Amino acid sequence: MNRLKRCTLIGILFVSVTGTLSHFLYQFSGNCFLTGLFSPVGESTWEHMKLLFFPMLFYSLWMSACLRKEEPGVVSALALGNLAGCALIPIIFYTYSGVLGFHLLSLDILTFLISVLAAFYLAYRLTPGSKAGKYETLLAAAVILLMLLFFIFTYNPPGIELFAEP
């Protein structure tokens, strides 16, 4: 198994486990302000996007450091994968809950896992011979912007459905 595939599989496991555990981190921390910036402080769809975003961001930093010399497109591919995975969470959630008229915990968990798999699959497919490298600055800026939005909207959410508690 090549290094890219191994790192991708480890990443899927890492993000799935740490994302799941981070769901409870804010409560276990005694509602620590700093912890709330990186883990969900509520049950809104927006807050649940953090379950994928921050674990994948941290793992991407490690994976990029390990593979960047042999796979120059890895940074861009991981950034795009992270953004796409985060976008999939509300897309899948609102689609299935709109069709059913309600949401189920089991489908919420499945939504998270599908989004993690899709994020890493996209990154894996785009990394080798990636031309996305020329967009590295733009993708990094988009990831940084999303991170800042998570920080801002955690404690000051806009009054729209994405930020509402179910």
The number of distinct structural domains comes to 1
Number of strands: 0
Helix share, percent: over 70%
User: How many whole angstroms does the radius of gyration measure?
Assistant: 16 Å
Could you say which structural class the secondary elements and strand pairing correspond to? mainly alpha
Tell me the major beta sheet: none
Write down the overall geometry: globular
The average pLDDT score comes to: 95
SSE run: HHHHHHH
In whole angstroms, the N-to-C terminal distance is 43 Å
Total number of helical segments?
7
Query: Strand portion, in percent?
Result: under 5%
**Would you identify the regions where 5 or more consecutive residues have pLDDT less than 50?**
none
List keywords for this structure.
mainly alpha, transmembrane, about 75% helix, DUF6512, single chain, transmembrane helix, membrane, about 170 residues
Quick rundown:
The protein is built from seven helices and no strands.
Characterization of this structure:
The protein is mostly helical. The chain has one domain. The protein is 73% helix and 0% strand. It contains seven helices and no strands. It is globular.
Task: Give the topology, please.
Blueprint: H1 3-22, H2 25-28, H3 33-38, H4 45-67, H5 74-100, H6 105-126, H7 136-155
Helix pairs in contact: 1-4, 1-6, 4-5, 5-6, 5-7
Keywords: Membrane, Transmembrane, Transmembrane helix
Transmembrane segments: 7-28, 48-67, 74-96, 102-123, 135-155
InterPro entries: DUF6512
